Amino acid sequence: MTETSLVQGADHLEPVGSGNGLLKRLLGMREIGLLLIILLVCLVMSFASPYFLTWSNFRTIFLSFSVEGIVVIGMTMLLIVGGLDLSVGSVICFAMVVAGKLFLVGLNPWLASLAGVASAAAIGAAMGIFVVRVGLSHFIASLAAMVIVRGACLLVTQGTPLSLFTLPPEFKFVGQGSLWGVPLVVVIFIVLAVVFDFLLRRATIFRAVFYTGSNERAAEYSGIRTKRVIFWVTVLCSTLAGLAGVIFMARFGSATPQFGVGMELNVIAAAVIGGASLKGGQGSIFGAVLGVALLSLVTSSLILLDVSVYMQDMIKGFILLAAVSVDHLMSQRAAREG
Questions:
Q1: Which of 3, 78, 160, 174 has its CA 20 to 30 A from that of 273?
Q2: What mean pLDDT is reported for the chain?
Q3: CA dist 229 to 37, 129, 181, Å?
Q4: Residue 230 CB neighbour total at 10 angstroms
């Protein structure tokens, strides 16, 4: 007699055979496919460059995607709920500028950073109001916010980077320090990723994010306050971007008004590569983490192979196009099968 196990999905329980059925299911998971691609890239690069399999290179890769990965967490949740935020790059910069400016006028760096994160949350709240009250799409609201907030960064700094080298060592430790040899930035990112991944999978209140993104009207009929869900997820996305901003500030000891330009494309690409759907209702934090790790790995590999920076942008663009195309084709297939 074949032993049967129950595997819990997003909304239902599905019987799966314990042998080949489970293996087939695992191989069909987006995350497993990404892991295999990441391992393949690592294998190829280990032969292509003698500097790839070094701790300094992997440390650089971890640092590069950890802070950006904090933003990917928020973006993934917003994509699941059916939204999109084009302003995260500008919001990151604005949080840095606000915190840096307040520090330079004498405010404690921790309080200044808190004010920077709060300002990012306020931007998210403003976008959320325009989406749920006025009826604008996330695309339009965040596009407007991207331009306005970037202009505010330039206005506050007059286009000149803020030098923050007098930040106290205990604050710089957040961006530059290590715990047991692991950069603190990486530790913070891992903790946030694990917490939000667990909440999305297990917490009842966070399941409303999936229900709202899958079918907003049906979610409303079932008693979910979908507009409130959309509003708070929009705020959360901006808040995490603000947190990433102050961590960047602690890491580099400066606040540059041009910082974060184009970052929103990397973040969206990472989330979509990780399985988040542009149509909403689908995605995972773990997949998004693998997506941003893959992009950072590709960037590091291109640098080690001495590929032109302009060619790197083209390659990233093709990766984004491929990710969106795969998402679209999978959505069409699901619609036909449904």
A1: 174
A2: 85
A3: 34, 12, 39
A4: 22
